[in-house]
Amino acid sequence: MTTNTPAVDVQTPPTAPPRENYLNCSKGFKSWALTLDHKRIGLMYLIGVSIAFLSGGMFALLVRLHLWEPEGMLFTNIEYNQIFTLHGAFMVFLFVIPAIPGSLGNIVMPLMVGAKDVALPKLNLLSFYLWLIGAVLAVLAIVLGGFDTGWTFYAPYSLYTDRAVVTIGMAIFILGFSSIFTGLNFIVTVHKLRAPGITWFRMPLFVWAIYATAILQVLATPVLGITVLLVAFERLYNIGIFDPRLGGDPVLFEHFFWFYSHPAVYIMVLPAFGIISELVSVHSRKPLFGYKLIAFSSIAIAIISFLVWGHHMFTSGQSTYALFAFSFLTFFVAIPTAIKEFSWVATVWKGSVALNSPMLYTLAFLIIFAIGGLTGVILGALNVDLHLHDTYFVVAHFHYVMMGSIALAFFAGLHHWWPKMFGVMYNEFQAKIACALIFVGFNATFLPQFVMGSRGMPRRYATYVPEYAPYHQASTIGAMILGTGVAMMVIYLIASLLIRKKAKENQWGGVTLDWIAPTPPPHLNFDHEPKVVHEVYDYSTLDYDSMQRDCN
Amino acid sequence: MSHDDHHAVVIPAPGPEFVPHTVAHHFSTPVQEFQAGKLGFWLFLATEILLFGGLFAAYFYFHELFPETFRVGGEQLDWRLGALNTSVLLLSSWTMAMGVRSAQTSQKSKTMIYLFLTVLGAAGFMVIKFIEYKAKNEHGLICFGHLFDGYDMASGQVSWFKDYDGVMAGVPHGHMFFSIYLTMTAIHGLHVIIGAIAIIYVMRGTAMGRYHAGYYLPVDLVGLYWHLVDLIWIFLFPLLYLVP
Q1: Measured between CA atoms, how close is B46 to chain A, in angstroms?
Q2: Residues of chain B numbered 105-164 and touching chain A (CB < 8 Å)
Q3: Residue B10: inside a domain, yes or no?
Q4: Does the CB of A237 have a partner CB in chain B at under 8 Å?
Q5: Domain carrying residue B140
Q6: Cα A372 to Cα A137: distance, rounded to the nearest angstrom
Q7: Which terminus of chain B has fewer CB atoms gathered within 10 Å of its CB, N or C?
Q8: Which 8-state DSSP code applies to residue A173?
Q9: Do A120 and B39 touch (CB under 8 A)?
Q10: Which chain A positions have a beta carbon within 8 Å of B148's beta carbon?
Q11: In-domain check, residue A531
């Protein structure tokens, strides 16, 4: 036939069968429960950590509600201790530590290095199940009487309280091994499974961040393992190491605990840095400013973070020289962190900024993290810390980092890779509203806490003097706004899976391998083994067509 | 899973008594698989050292705090039994190394013999350890029957520390040495048992002909683990038995 045929969309023939991807390549419970596919394991993590986050969030809202009135509204003092301990323990051990490496790291990192899977897929599945066992034990500990020690389990109280400390200790021990195995797996993957052409300095910065995190997970977590084990031994057979009645030293516990838990802060925050590094580049369509500096600053943070644990213990009676050293090193660790912040801002500057929801979360992160980071420097100063130690100022500082920075970066990454993971797009308008609610709610919750903390409101108290009531009430209202924003996010994300509005093949115009892989990726990630010939973040290679085409 | 099969790389078996090894689906070459396994395992060993590192830190701290307790406590241990156990473990490390070497050179029966001797070494170590624990029990230095009875308010002592002979009477917190001794050696003993189970597992694979010159990674890794268990004891022995 030589007559004109009506123009058809040659890219997506309407009759094309859906191509095989990791979500539909096999079916049934077993194909998920026993999967070795890093993307499926990542999705299972995503569901798990999300549930942990929402439960931890509920505990937080209960804490804030209780503090509406100076004499407390909901709980007895003992119950209050349990609720804030549950909030802390769930958020730290079940959400913040595993969230980004377990879910987004698992799904995206092997794609970014062009691998078919992580290096040790069975170990990866084991990590997930260890996480699950840890989570079950944590819930069991609640049933067995709860725990009221705070998430830090400070001796000697954790040795004497009649609550289920051993059970939660075992939960943390097992969760620790989950974290160790994830880190170990990622180190081996980065070293051994990079596709041809992915040199160290062509790795996306999210991979660098995950790699630095993995080093910390492997080297710091065993110390936490032995510490909770020793607390358990102390309770089981009075080993005496931490028990002052038996000649032991509770301050030794603090040293052990923070030797892990300070690096753990960076286990939590480095993956968040990685997400932000990716997102500022993609959504500004500009190569990252200071790529190598950001990469090396991750490693520098990983190293220095092992040397600053004493700044959690300025008031515990260390020698003056130790105090000086820890204070100095604390200032020192702020340098690589500031390098990152400035590099991100410089990346956005004069970029072609697309103000879509992942970028809005990223910009929120940049503002909140500047406050969270700088208040950390304030707390690192010895004389100031003596005044602020154990006040709401500290609470506000670490929530600006853990919730405001890490959780927001997690949300940013979730929105960024959501179309990649599922091939569907959420409602952008609702996403922007939710982001605004979360940003406003978060600041309303924690800015007043800086003020009341600096005026002497101690942390962990179930009641307070009426002078602090306005700050507490502002904080509670903020928490409710924040909760509303998070609830809205959960709803529209789940709705997007039901409505199934197709995402684009390359939704945001990324040029790293995670965006080169088909959307959603097939079981083995790539149709052909990728070979990288250009530098990372080289937007001249961007295939604009893939941004217009619906994914399969 | 079915789609994993089409990229399979297979290492042929060197003889009829062996089976070929299929490289896992996500690796391109056998070398990549071998190196990934090795690197992963070395990292795991690092975590083990750090886990014990906490215990060693506690040892040094309390040794510094109560030197007399550690001196008198250490004298209650039998250095001859400790030295015997050290020799047993060192010998078993040698048999393990020979076992790995035999696996690398596809000598199946030799591998089996060496691995069996290593398990025997592990069992010997545990028997000697049991004898030592039993003596501690008899002298009331570690009463295993009262281990979980808690803290006795009246005597201000832990219930498992009775010290029938009064050897620790003159030193502060006499139980401290023994609680550290018990914890460190018990956790180490647990590693010996886990190591023995791992060796039995690779013996099973060896019997089935899985390991040969082309593929011996599991034997290699179990060997590394066993040497670590040995290495930790090399530190425990002088610190607990000789330094005081």
Answers
A1: 7
A2: 147-148, 150-151, 156, 158-160
A3: no
A4: yes
A5: 31-242
A6: 32
A7: N
A8: H
A9: no
A10: 236-237
A11: yes
Those of residues 35-54 in B touching chain A at CB distance below 8 A are 35-37, 39-40, 43-44, 46-48, 50-54
Residue B88 has a CB neighbour count (10 Å cut-off) of 21
Of B26, B53, B62, the CB nearest to A223: B53
Put simply, whether A23 touches B (Cβ < 8 Å) is no
Q: What is the pLDDT along chain A (552 residues), one digit of tens a residue?
A: 444 544 444 455 455 667 889 999 999 999 999 999 999 999 999 999 999 999 999 999 999 999 999 999 999 999 999 999 999 999 999 999 999 999 999 999 999 999 999 999 999 999 999 999 999 999 999 999 888 999 999 989 999 998 999 999 999 999 999 999 999 999 999 999 999 999 999 999 999 999 999 999 999 999 999 999 999 999 999 998 999 989 899 999 999 999 999 999 999 999 999 999 999 999 999 999 999 999 999 999 999 999 999 999 999 988 999 999 999 999 999 999 999 999 999 999 999 999 999 999 999 999 999 999 999 999 999 999 999 999 999 999 999 999 999 999 999 999 999 999 999 999 999 999 999 999 999 999 999 999 999 999 999 999 999 999 999 999 999 999 999 999 999 999 999 999 999 999 999 999 999 999 999 999 999 988 898 999 999 999 999 999 999 987
Chain B residues close to A249, C-beta within 8 Å = 61, 65
Q: Quick check: is A174 in a domain?
A: yes
Contact of A527 with A518, CB cutoff 8 Å: yes
- For residue B7, is it within any domain? no
Which residues 156-195 in chain A show a CB within 8 A of chain B?
180, 184-185, 187-188, 191-193
Nearest CB to A227; choose among B37, B54, B180: B54
User: Which residue, A50, A38, A48, is CA-closest to A108?
Assistant: A38
- Among A118, A124, A239, A251, the residue to mutate for chain B (most B Cβ within 10 A): A239
What residue spans of B66-174 are helical by DSSP H?
67-75, 79-104, 108-138
Residues 6 or more apart whose Cβ sits within 8 Å of residue A157: A149
- Encode pLDDT of A410-468 as tens digits: 999 999 999 999 999 999 999 999 999 999 999 999 999 999 999 999 999 999 999 99
Q: Residue A15 falls within a domain, yes or no? A: no
A219 touches B: beta carbon within 8 Å: yes
In a domain, A117, yes or no: yes
Q: Which amino acid, one-letter code, is at A438?
A: I
User: Does residue B1 lie in a domain region?
Assistant: no
Q: In chain A, how many domains are there?
A: 1
Bridge partners of A396? none
**Chain A partners within 8 Å of B65 (Cβ):** 247, 249
Task: Find the domain containing A71 and state its range.
Answer: 43-548
Query: Could B151 and A245 be called an inter-chain contact, meaning their C-beta atoms sit closer than 8 Å?
Result: yes
Q: What is the ipTM of this complex?
A: 0.92
Give me the DSSP letters along A214-247.
HHHHHHHHHHHHHHHHHHHHHHHH---SS-GGGT
Task: Of B175, B57, B144, give the one whose Cα is nearest residue A239.
Answer: B175
What CATH number does the domain containing A67 carry?
A: 1.20.210.10
The Cα B144–Cα B138 span in angstroms is 10
Rounded to a whole number, what is the distance in angstroms from the first to the last CA of chain B? 58
Q: Which of B32, B53, B173 sits opposite A240 (nearest CB)?
A: B173
- Domain harbouring B36, CATH code: 1.20.120.80
